[in-house]
Design brief:
Elements: H1 5-10, E1 12-16, H2 21-33, E2 38-41, H3 46-55, E3 64-67, E4 70-73, H4 77-87, H5 101-111
């Protein structure tokens, strides 16, 4: 994988592949929250693909996120923020976790009272 090993040890790297909706969703949420991270396309980087397989029981499950020395396979945004606070605090120093659009919708629907005709 391209990049400085020490630099990667301190930060956050998201491993992804084209066409992965889960990758796109997590990437958008991480960017919106202000998380500082690198991205590596596993289809362009055989070493990155091997790393993902080593973390995901031999599968190329993405998104896989490396945070310092911790690795998360298909993590929630909450897991990314919580793990980063311990393993890469500089990467989330200004991060603000925002609720997912689906979570907002669920909360709105859950609070709405049923109206009987």
């Amino acid at each position: 994988m391209a990049g400085n090993t020490a630099e990667r040890r301190e930060g956050i790297t998201m491993f992804w592949r084209p066409g992965c909706g889960f990758c796109a969703a997590l990437r958008a949420r991480m960017r919106a929250a202000g998380v500082v991270f690198d991205e590596v396309n596993i289809w362009d980087d055989p070493e990155a693909a091997a790393f993902v397989r080593s973390a995901a029981a031999g599968n190329e499950t993405v998104p896989t996120v490396r945070i310092g020395t911790a690795t998360l396979v298909n993590p929630s945004m909450r897991a990314v923020i919580e793990t980063a606070r311990t393993h890469a605090p500089a990467a989330v120093a200004d991060a603000v976790e925002r609720p997912s659009p689906l979570g907002v919708l669920r909360a709105m629907l859950g609070r709405r009272k049923a109206v009987m005709p």
